[in-house]
Design brief:
The protein is of the alpha+beta class. Among the domains are: 23-77, SH3 type barrels (Roll), CATH 2.30.30; 81-147. Helices cover 35% and strands 36% of the residues. Strands 4-3-2-1-5-6 form a six-stranded antiparallel β-sheet. It has a two-stranded antiparallel ribbon with strand order 7-8. Strand 7 (163-173) and strand 8 (177-187) form a beta hairpin. Helix 2 runs antiparallel to helix 3 (118-145).
């Protein structure tokens, strides 16, 4: 029973205490603040317990109080969009291939899925595959050229990474009657 008390005390102290998030000096971070809804990108100069001091990318200095920080992220490098480009390009190409295949023969009028021969279906499948692969390759190439910054969320200073969620459970059992319990779920 006393291990349960220790666990509860640990959870309470973890949630209540405002643990300072450790950032290395010179590390690039992105800070999102609450009242003016602003986002700042800069390098950490100092990290006292009550604020975060940054040199912004435009060389200005900024001091952000920790209680105003909503989201804090660490820069992890550049990323490309190869996979997204391949999927978008392939999808667009597949739709174009299906459309071209269904419009290839005019024996049934405009687009009809239930009319046509096996040759028409083979032509549609072939065009879908070709257009999908070619457009996917073009999308992959474009995604390889386009780069963006990649950011990793740093756990919040307010909750130390622990989130609390209310729980409610109502159980009806014929032998024991109704039971109702309320609890709190902690997620790390």
């Amino acid at each position: 029973m006393h291990w349960l008390l220790r666990l509860c005390m640990f959870l309470v102290f973890s949630v209540v205490s405002s643990v300072a998030v450790a950032q290395s000096l010179g590390e690039r971070v992105r800070v999102t603040t609450s009242p003016p809804d602003a986002r700042f990108d800069g390098y950490v100069l100092e990290s006292p317990s009550d604020s975060l001091q940054l040199r912004l990318t435009d060389s200005n200095l900024l001091s952000v109080p920790r209680e105003d920080i909503v989201l804090l992220e660490r820069y992890t490098g550049k990323r490309t969009y190869k996979k997204r480009g391949f999927l978008i390009g392939g999808g667009v190409g597949a739709v174009a291939g299906i459309t071209a295949g269904l419009l290839a023969e005019e024996d049934c009028g405009l687009i009809s899925f239930f009319c046509g021969t096996e040759e028409r279906l083979e032509t549609t499948a072939m065009l879908t595959g070709y257009f999908g692969l070619i457009s996917g390759a073009v999308g992959f190439a474009i995604g390889a050229v386009v780069e963006g910054d990649q950011w990793e969320k740093i756990s919040s200073t307010r909750t130390s990474g622990i989130r609390l969620a209310p729980m409610l459970n109502v159980v009806y059992n014929k032998q024991s009657g109704q039971t109702l319990w309320v609890g709190v779920r902690a997620r790390l």
